[in-house]
Each structure stands twice: as C-alpha cells, then as structure tokens.
C-alpha cells in the first residue's frame, strides 16, 4: 500500500464497503458520542467520516489531537446504514473504521475556525491566509479560478489564437496609473517598470505578423484598492487581433464570455447578443458607463421640461427623472427609504411624485408642477396610474452618479430587478479627449493608442471634445470587465493625437520610440481587449470582493500580511542598487499582527 494513501477522502462510495484503505488529510472536525469518536477527515478532494471505537489505540490517539492536525489513518470502509446516511456528502453512505493513526503534521491551536464561516475580520484572514484557503468557500473559489483560466486557454486556442509571453521588466509608460519601478543594478540611476498591461508589446506582435495573440497576463499598477480592484497586481485575458474592425473583436469576446459564463455560472442565464450602448447614451439612461442592466428601469433627461420653470430647485439645472411602475401598494417608507439612500450617495434629498388612479399627482413637489409640466412628463415618461417618478437635479456628472445608483436601488426595492442572470453589454463611442476641469487642458479620456473615428481628418477639423474613438468597454452586471480599442497604427495620426493632448513630436518619440518606429515599417490595422480574470471569477463566484477570488492578495493598504511585504532592505543592498532612503520622509505606521 502507498506510504500515505490508497484513496482520497472524496472518492469512497458504497461500492467500497469492506475495503481496507489508507487516507491522509486534515482533522476537520471531531465529535464524541458516548466514547465513540466521529472524525471528519478533509483533503483537497473532499470529506469522509472516520469512526474510532472506545478502548482502541485509534480512539486514544485521535481524542487528543487538535483540529487541522495532518494525519494518516488506516481502516476499513463500512456502511453507515440507511438511517445515518448524510445526503449532503458524496461519501455520505459510508464511514471508515480506523485501526491505525500516524501524525504527519502537528497543528497548534488555530486562530479561527476552518469548518465554519465565522465573522473573523479580513486582516486576520490575510495574516493566516494558508488557513483561510482551507475553508470550503475559499478552496472552491480558487479552484474555480483555475478552471476558468484553463477554459480560457482552451477556447482562445480553438479560435486560432497563439499564447505568447511578453516582458515583465520593461520601460515606464503613461497608461493612466502609477508604475511599480524596479531599480537597475547594472545601470545606475535607471529603472525598469513592471507592466501596467502588455499594451505596446502586443501591438508590436501584431506588427510582427502573429495575427492573433492572447495571454493570461500579469499586470501591475500602483493604485488604491476597491471591492472590484486588487492593489498591486492582477491578471487579464489579454487579446489582440490583426486586420479587424470593432465588430470582429466583439464577436470573438462575446463567444468566449458567453461560453465561460454558461459553463461556470451555475445555471444563471447569459443574455446574448450583448447590446451596444454609446457612452453618452449610457450616461443619460443609466447614469453610468458600466450600467447594471439587471435593473429594468431607465433614467430620462427632462431638463428641457423645467428650463423655464419657476420651481427653483429644478430651474436652469440638469434634471434626470426615474419612472418606477406599480408602486401603488408601496408605503411611504418606500419613498423615504430611497430618499435616504440618495442622501448616502451625496444628494441633498430626492424629489418625487406619485400618479394616482385618476391621474392626480401627489408627493412633496406635486404642487410645484404646472399643467404643461405634467403633460410633458406624462408623454416623455409614459406615466400611468401607479407610477412614481423620482427626480435628481444639479450638474450632469453629479446627477448621473446619484441617480445611477438610485436607479439600481429602486429597481431592487420595486421588484424591477432580474436575479440569477448575467447581463452583458458593450459601451461604445467613447470620447477621444476630455478637458481637465482643474487645468483646462485637453487630455486623453481613454487609451492614448486608440484610433479616432474619422482618422486624421477628424483630428485636424473637429473640436477635440467632439471626436469619438474606436474604444469600447465590456460590462457585466454593473462591473467593467475590460476596456479595449481598435488601435491607431498610423504615425501621422499618432503624432496629431498626442499633439492635441499637449505632447510634442519629440515627446512622442522619446516615450513611444519603439512603437512609433514599428509603425513606420508596415503596421496592419489591429485591435484588442483584455477582460480581467479576477473580476470574471468574482462574478462567477458571486463574491462582493475581488480578494475572495485571489489566493494571496494584498490587503486594502497594499500589504502582504502573511509574507510581510513591502519590507525594508539593508544598506548593502541599497548601495548595490545605487539607492538611498530619505530619512526625513514620513514612515507609515507598521502593521501589528492581531493576537
């Protein structure tokens, strides 16, 4: 028999009754019922119940071991009997009567329970991540991630894409976030940058003639954490294609995403095809460029209705209305609750009206509406008895943010929200440029390597703020999975686009010399995208926080509490790297492990 196991803990069944077996795993749980010990033994593959009879050496050995001790046991598979079957376990028809025990790895008292999802805080969990990963939910999430990545590789390869690796040590690039810098030992005072994305390299692969590229690419950005963003590093399904237009990219990614979410979505429906929504339309209808389409409600711009109104709260402001049907049975607390929610989003309040059976209006602002206002709103919003209308007024961006959140919350509270579904969409026609409100400068609003719609002519003849780009985002259930674009592959267009954003030709040649040089030697039209692996798994696992799908994430302060990163280095190493530390700089408070 094998030194450690003849079977795994998850594979024994009723057909194995009478078989002598050897198992190894972690002591998951223990119950003493009148001297008879029942042990749950766990390994990667599952859970099996052991039984140790009173007076046996096995009973004596197992009774003193702490949970999470690693043991090897020998025993015989026996039937539990019909009355004792556990239908929730694949091994629930049998148990193993233990005859011999060997401790393979002793365990100290564990700092939190493994066999239950108790309320231990995240810092504690990350400090002992190796224990946290033993929990069933976390183990399942990490395996899901593995399976999703395997499926991605299979699907991309089947579609004719080639998996190619790009450099980790490269030059710094203005991609929109801070680089992580790596000092060079051989070149004093110079630094490598870890890639924010393989953007330039994958474009160079297209110019080199590889046609269809993909990579499960590690990316590094020195940015703050959010629920859907892990600080430090993340992975993406990086894709680039030659001789394509926007729709060609969409067709490939829609196929891959639909198949992935159908395969791993546990029966949740995937809506297809994915609608294409222009950026400006998304901001007006949904208040967001990453709309959650599970909410069936839409916002409507009614600013013109109140343009000359005497109602000062709305007059001269951008006004967005949200019509919610079938609220005739909703109590006053429904309206007050949404008002409080709007305040939590930054609003001063939430104006509303309700349409009664005879078409009469009620609510805090009903008395301020003229007959013309009511007529216009009724036509614009399709109002009927039982409807309520919520209003937000102010600056466009502020109203979009607040009313976008109210739209989703109102849909959930009013029964207008789809559950158990993945609702994808493409956001298209992003503006190429935007104005920095603080400096007044024209800046790139998205990827600087994108092709403007209309090409060089648009750059030379149109107001920069009116130029659209061949840029797109893919969104699922209100989560942006990725941005992408049809790339600019023409040097003249590149020079002009960067000139509008305040870069000289010399700046472009210095920052993007390799890319620019490549464009001058025959570059094909190309485009791509890079859906985030972490966010995809987060959606599939139905987890609210992206760190629940990553084996060893940094915490919200970009610290690795298990391994102690970032850490200090000694003076000899600093000297070797031609670095010195400014002793006058403020030092962050060191993390102190919980007891």
Automatic annotation (TrEMBL):
Residues 144-553 form the Aminoacyl-transfer RNA synthetases class-II family profile domain. Its main location: cytoplasm. L-aspartate binds at residues 175, 221, 446, 487. It catalyses: tRNA(Asp) + L-aspartate + ATP = L-aspartyl-tRNA(Asp) + AMP + diphosphate. Pfam families: GAD (PF02938), tRNA-synt_2 (PF00152), tRNA_anti-codon (PF01336). GO terms for biological process: aspartyl-tRNA aminoacylation. Residues 199-202 are annotated as: Aspartate. It is found in: Cytoplasm. One of its GO terms (molecular function) is ATP binding. Signal peptide: none annotated. Catalyzes the attachment of L-aspartate to tRNA(Asp) in a two-step reaction: L-aspartate is first activated by ATP to form Asp-AMP and then transferred to the acceptor end of tRNA(Asp). This is Aspartate--tRNA ligase. The gene is aspS.
């Amino acid at each position: 028999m094998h030194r450690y196991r003849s079977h795994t803990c998850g594979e024994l069944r009723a057909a194995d009754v009478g078989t002598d077996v050897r198992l190894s795993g972690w002591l998951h749980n223990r119950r003493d019922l009148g001297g008879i010990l029942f042990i749950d033994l766990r390994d990667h593959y599952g859970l099996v119940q052991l039984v140790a009879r009173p007076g046996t050496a096995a009973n004596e050995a197992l009774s003193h071991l702490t949970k999470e001790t690693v043991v090897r046991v020998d025993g015989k598979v026996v039937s539990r009997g019909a009355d004792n079957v556990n239908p929730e376990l694949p091994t629930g028809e049998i148990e193993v009567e233990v005859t011999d025990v060997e401790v393979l790895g002793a365990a100290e008292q564990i700092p939190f329970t493994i066999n239950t999802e108790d309320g231990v805080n995240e810092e504690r969990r990350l400090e002992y991540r190796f224990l946290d990963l033993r929990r069933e939910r976390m183990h399942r999430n990490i395996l899901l991630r593995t399976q999703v990545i395997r499926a991605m590789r299979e699907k991309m390869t089947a579609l004719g894409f080639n998996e190619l690796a790009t450099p980790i040590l490269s030059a710094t690039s203005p991609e929109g976030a801070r680089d992580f810098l790596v000092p060079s030992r051989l070149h004093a005072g110079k630094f490598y940058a870890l890639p924010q994305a393989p953007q330039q390299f994958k474009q160079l692969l297209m110019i080199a003639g590889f046609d269809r590229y993909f990579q499960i690419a590690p990316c590094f950005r020195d940015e703050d954490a959010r629920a859907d963003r892990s600080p430090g590093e993340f992975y993406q399904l990086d894709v680039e294609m030659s001789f394509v237009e926007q729709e060609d990219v969409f067709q490939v990614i829609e196929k891959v995403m639909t198949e992935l979410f159908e395969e791993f979505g546990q029966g949740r429906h995937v809506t297809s095809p994915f609608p294409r929504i222009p950026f400006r339309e998304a901001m007006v209808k949904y208040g967001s460029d990453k709309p959650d389409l599970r909410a069936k409600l839409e916002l409507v711009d009614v600013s013109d209705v109140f343009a000359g109104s005497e109602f000062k709260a709305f007059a001269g402001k951008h006004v967005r209305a949200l019509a919610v049907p079938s609220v005739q049975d909703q109590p006053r607390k429904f309206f007050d609750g949404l008002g409080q929610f709007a305040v939590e989003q930054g609003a001063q309040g939430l104006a509303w009206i309700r349409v009664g059976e005879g078409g009469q209006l009620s609510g805090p602002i009903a008395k301020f509406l003229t007959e013309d206002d009511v007529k216009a709103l009724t036509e614009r919003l399709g109002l009927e008895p039982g409807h309520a209308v919520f209003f937000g007024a102010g600056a466009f961006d502020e109203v979009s943010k607040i009313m976008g959140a109210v739209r989703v919350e109102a849909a959930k509270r009013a029964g207008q929200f789809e559950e158990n579904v993945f609702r994808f969409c493409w956001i298209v026609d992003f503006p190429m440029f935007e104005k920095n409100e603080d400096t007044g400068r024209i800046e790139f609003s998205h990827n600087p390597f994108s092709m403007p719609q209309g090409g060089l002519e648009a750059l030379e003849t149109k107001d920069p703020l009116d130029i659209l780009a061949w840029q797109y985002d893919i969104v699922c259930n209100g989560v942006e999975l990725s941005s992408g674009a049809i790339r600019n592959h023409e040097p003249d267009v590149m020079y002009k686009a960067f000139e509008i954003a305040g870069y000289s030709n010399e700046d472009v040649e210095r920052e993007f010399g390799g890319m620019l040089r490549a464009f001058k030697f025959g570059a094909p039209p190309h485009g791509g995208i890079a859906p985030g692996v972490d966010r995809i798994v987060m959606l599939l696992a139905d987890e609210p926080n992206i760190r629940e799908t990553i084996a060893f994430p940094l915490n919200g302060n970009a610290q690795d509490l298990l391994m102690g990163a970032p850490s200090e280095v000694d003076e000899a190493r600093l000297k070797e790297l031609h670095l010195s530390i400014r002793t006058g700089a403020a030092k962050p408070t060191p993390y102190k492990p919980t007891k």
